[in-house]
Amino acid sequence: MRYDDSSPPTPRVAAPRRPVLAAVVLASVCLTAAGCGGDGGPAPGQAQPLPGSSAAAPSGSASSSPPPAASKGPSTSPPASASASVKPPKPLPKGPLTGRTVVIDPGHNPRNRDRTSEINRQVDIGTGHKECDTTGTATNSGYAEARFTLDVSRRLRTLLEAQGAKVVLTQDDDRPFGPCVDERARIGNEAHADAVVSVHADGSAAGNRGFHVILPAQVRGGGADTAKIVAPSRDLGERIAGKFVRITGSAPSNYIGGNTGLDTRKDLGGLNLSTVPKVFVECGNMRDPKDAALLMSADWRQKAALGIAEGISSYLKR
């Protein structure tokens, strides 16, 4: 953070042959500037000035002491809001997805394991109630799904932003847990997203391999009504599945979806409560050694992100 660089001027000491005049000048500066006595810190019992406030002097200025209480007249320092420079967000490049908003939902949260009571809380998903969230699965060697999903999601964000899209992550390892599944849906809804993709990896038995894309079923009840998003979500999911096969080389799941790479479900709050097109992508099975080796490869994760990005781009440019 950059602070205001205006500070009281350093008093100019007069020549030795005019000591009386020098004393008068120095006394005048001490009364109107930040003070001349002490060690430069606040007096005992006086509050320490906050960085960026009108009482704080920048590092290396002529005086770091706050002005005395008796000082009168308007302050020449800008208010705290003006003295603290906030770096504006970097503008997105212009591209084929300019004006489009994509919400990326990294499945689970690396910190969920430390907040089991919170994530076990039941939330309404329209068709019933379910846990706020779960810890997710992991490979046999301990590579957590939550770490995988966050890595792929960040790569995906970079790829989409390069095409001009505005990208929102539901979490970026910046929360103590969650968000809960109902809030994950709400984030996409409130962003008026053109597409939402939730990134996951499965935890099935060894020998079960491949990816699959989960689509929302026709659901109506409570706060859920997927009637308007079923068809566009299927279109989004089919495009992602097609690009994922081509770019990663992975085959569609051999244990879910009848080798189509697509699965429709009505028990996921993140889909049930969505009012915008949304799908889940299960990128592979973390419990199968061969799939796990792919999921733990940074090169493959980049391919996975690219496959999802190209599917989203194809859908948004249709």
Structure description:
By secondary structure, this protein is of the alpha/beta class. The chain is 31% helix and 14% strand. It contains nine helices and ten strands. The chain has helices spanning 19-32, 80-83, 116-119, 145-161, 181-190, 230-248, 269-272, 289-295, 298-316, and strands spanning 101-106, 122-124, 129-131, 166-169, 195-202, 212-216, 220-221, 224-225, 262-265, 278-285. The strands form three sheets. A six-stranded mixed sheet has the order 4-1-5-10-6-9, sandwiched between helices. Strand 7 and strand 8 (224-225) form a beta hairpin. Helix 4 (145-161) crosses helix 9. It starts with 18 loop residues before the first helix and ends with a helix. Mean pLDDT is 81; it is low at 1-84.
3D shape: globular
Order of helices and strands: HHEHEEHEHEEEEHEHEHH
Q: Helix count?
A: 9
What is the number of strand segments? Answer: 10
The radius of gyration is 29 Å
Arrangement of strands in the largest sheet: 4-1-5-10-6-9
Estimate the strand proportion: 5-15%
Structural class: alpha/beta
What is the typical, i.e. mean, pLDDT? 81
